[in-house]
TrEMBL record:
Gene3D superfamilies: Phosphatidylinositol (PI) phosphodiesterase. The lineage of its organism: Bacteria, Pseudomonadati, Pseudomonadota, Betaproteobacteria, Burkholderiales. It comes from Cupriavidus cauae. Its EC number is 3.1.4.46. It comes from the Bacteria. PROSITE patterns: GP_PDE. It holds the Pfam family GDPD. This is Glycerophosphodiester phosphodiesterase.
Length: 279
């Protein structure tokens, strides 16, 4: 995949200002959709199941299929450093054991985060958010940072990850999209980095889902794709919210959702669902 370089200063300022104004306003006016400078297909945890999730190897693999945006999970180490890891514990995807936030960054860096997937990835490390920022920005790629706190650390994690994202993507033409299932984490992110766009993740749609988006100042709903139909998508758009959905692994389902107007689908199937940019 051809690498992109940074935009001109004018383009950077314009892109940041457009998204920042929407986020700062808290919610878009009904019928007016906020900016969405992101591709319509997003690689889940780097490359879905084709490489060890949430590693640089996965990002490189996903990029080899032409994907230009990546969703990944971030939590804090014992010493407050932002690292990529989905689970609250280490056993499933690393050589470690116990709670992820019980180890310092230095201790986490010694773990093998690749062998669980396949021998080819033995020794692949847990990456830091800073390493992912460096890689994606150097290659013109975009990111959806899911704030994934270890239980009991929602507010602290939301604030720390948002502040790190704000610094690491400073000056970027396209800001990172923050998302979380944790409303407390999103509230904390909003307080410390109000200009970064946010999406609320929902596995099921409660009756007050639109009210929740408004209260959190989100620009988007990020829902389980099984909860979506054309009426829900139109309701979200009509209220001024973008719609993303997860985890869509069948090409026909992805095509249907995109045809209904979903703004982005998150997928493991980077080898079967072609990347799609813009509209």
């Amino acid at each position: 995949m051809a690498a992109e370089r940074q935009s001109t200063e004018a383009e950077t300022a314009a892109g940041q200002t457009a998204v920042a104004r929407t986020a700062a306003a808290g919610t878009a006016a009904a019928g007016t959709l906020p900016p969405w400078p992101y591709p319509r297909t997003i690689a889940h945890r780097g490359a879905g199941k084709l490489a060890p999730e949430n590693t640089l190897a996965a990002f490189r693999h996903g990029a080899s299929f032409g994907y230009r945006m990546f969703e990944f999970d971030v939590k804090l180490s014992a010493d407050g450093k932002a690292v990529l890891l989905h689970d609250a514990t280490l056993e499933r995807t690393t050589s470690g054991r116990g709670r992820a936030d019980a180890l310092t960054l230095g201790e986490l860096a010694q773990l093998d985060a690749g062998s669980w997937h396949s021998p080819a990835y033995a020794g692949e490390p847990i990456p830091t958010l800073a390493a992912i920022a460096a890689y994606t920005r150097a290659n013109g790629l975009h990111v959806n940072i899911e704030i994934k706190p270890v239980p009991g650390t929602e507010t602290r994690t939301g604030a720390a990850v948002a502040l790190d994202a704000l610094a690491l993507w400073a000056g970027a033409a396209v800001p990172p999209l923050l998302s979380s299932f944790s409303e407390a984490a999103l509230e904390a992110a909003s307080r410390v980095a109000p200009d970064l766009p946010r999406a609320l993740l929902l596995d099921t749609l409660p009756a007050d889902w639109l009210d929740r988006l408004a209260r959190l100042g989100c620009v988007a709903l990020d829902a389980n794709h099984r909860e979506l139909n054309q009426d829900v998508i139109e309701a979200a758009h009509g209220a001024g919210y973008r719609v993303a959905c997860y985890t869509v692994n069948e090409p026909d389902r992805a095509a249907a959702l995109l045809g209904w107007g979903v703004d982005a689908v998150i997928t493991d199937a980077v080898d079967r669902i072609p990347p799609r940019d813009g509209t």
